[in-house]
Task: inverse folding
């Protein structure tokens, strides 16, 4: 597959030489310095890899700054509300779009001026990433649904399609230090795990009119599902302290049968590399089990320009290059970043592979709330789910705390009139 993609990259780079060059070797941004902010991950790695080409094309200098996910939100927020202008481009987790839109540049003028084609993106991604209240405040640059990686030699018939059978399946596979599954349960990841279980069971945080509905049988079932897996021994006892990297490395080392995490943050790149993986040729991807719906969790990111930036035109040039088709192909080949562009998924080496399961999930994958209350709710769920699973509090206390916390979050951050909750 990498050979096929390498050919595609060569062709794309031939286009790139003309697409991002300026007439008569002009350097229209000579002397300017662009500061771009990304999450510490392959997204920041890709940004750094693009710097030499961008500097050559524009004459500008670029500084790439990165922070872990748990710090990134605060860094963007503090810069935005202080109007400091520290960053010229920020990579925004799409659940923050509604919160940050008032502080970002409306990109409509740039899109129209340059004829930037926004119809090339997968519709479900476009609906959930960058657009807010009908206006573009960011351009989608990366996405992945929360699919599971699993061992085909352990589960030759694939994963069960409902949670009860799945729990039984992974428990039966657990033996002699081998665990049936693993989960990234660290703070910042655990709430998302709860979300995809809850949504697949037909539950939600609130209805379309923002009436809180977390006090439900679906919520209790989702919490009990996670606690039962914790208690039945099918998970490594340390799973609540594991991040994505720990989960992926455990799976690649051959120590677990399922990896419930974001596979594109390392697993899909290394899974068939003998130097990094003990499960070469013995793994595949699957959508999560479900009881009522086939919805899984969506992670999506969009690159935006803070309104306080003093280099907006240069920032737009960066966004165009970073989100271009040729760069998206290159970023997948080098860093495993999945593109939101439709054409990417039709390429040879992508279509007809394990990636088909990922592409199908992108049409229905669900996003967290994209209103300001989302971040506070996420924090609440992380704390409450962990407290219940670890035995610090009982089920009814947990549900009551969730309910009270979500109501308080909505009171602290009222939803703008006219915004409907699609995540219900």
Result:
């Amino acid at each position: 597959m990498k050979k096929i993609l390498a050919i595609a990259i060569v062709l794309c780079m031939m286009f790139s030489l003309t697409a991002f060059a300026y007439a008569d070797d002009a350097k229209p941004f000579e002397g300017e310095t662009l500061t771009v902010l990304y999450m510490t991950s392959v997204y920041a790695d890709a940004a750094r890899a693009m710097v030499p080409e961008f500097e050559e094309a524009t004459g500008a200098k670029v500084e790439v700054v990165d922070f872990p996910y748990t710090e990134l939100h605060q860094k963007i927020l503090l810069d935005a509300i202080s109007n400091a202008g520290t960053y010229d481009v920020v990579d925004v987790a799409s659940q923050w779009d509604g919160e940050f839109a008032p502080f970002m540049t409306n990109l409509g003028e740039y899109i129209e001026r340059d004829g930037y084609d926004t119809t090339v993106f997968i519709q479900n991604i476009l609906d959930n990433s960058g657009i807010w209240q009908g206006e573009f405040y960011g351009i989608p640059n990366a996405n992945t649904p929360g699919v599971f990686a699993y061992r085909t030699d352990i589960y030759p018939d694939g994963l069960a399609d409902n949670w009860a059978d799945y729990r039984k399946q992974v428990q039966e596979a657990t033996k002699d230090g081998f665990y049936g599954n693993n989960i990234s349960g660290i703070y910042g990841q655990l709430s998302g795990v709860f979300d995809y279980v809850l949504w697949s069971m037909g539950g939600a945080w609130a209805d379309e009119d923002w009436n809180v509905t977390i006090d439900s049988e679906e919520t209790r079932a989702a919490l009990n599902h996670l606690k039962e897996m914790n208690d039945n021994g099918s998970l490594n006892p340390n799973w609540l302290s594991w991040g994505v990297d720990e989960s992926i490395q455990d799976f690649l080392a051959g120590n677990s049968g399922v990896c419930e995490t974001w596979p594109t943050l390392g697993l899909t790149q290394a899974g068939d590399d003998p130097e990094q993986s003990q499960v070469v040729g013995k793994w595949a991807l699957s959508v999560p089990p479900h009881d009522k719906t086939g919805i899984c969790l969506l992670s999506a990111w969009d690159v935006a320009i803070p309104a306080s930036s003093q280099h907006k035109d240069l920032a737009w040039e960066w966004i165009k290059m970073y989100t271009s088709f040729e760069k998206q192909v290159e970023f997948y080949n080098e860093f495993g970043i999945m593109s939101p562009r439709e054409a990417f998924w039709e390429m040879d080496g992508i279509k007809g592979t394990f990636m088909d399961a990922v592409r199908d999930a992108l049409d229905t994958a669900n996003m967290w709330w994209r209103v300001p209350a989302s971040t506070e709710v996420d924090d609440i769920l992380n704390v409450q789910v962990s407290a219940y699973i670890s035995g610090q509090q009982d089920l009814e206390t947990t549900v009551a705390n969730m309910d009270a916390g979500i109501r308080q979050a909505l009171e602290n951050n009222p939803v703008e009139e006219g915004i409907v909750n699609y995540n219900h």
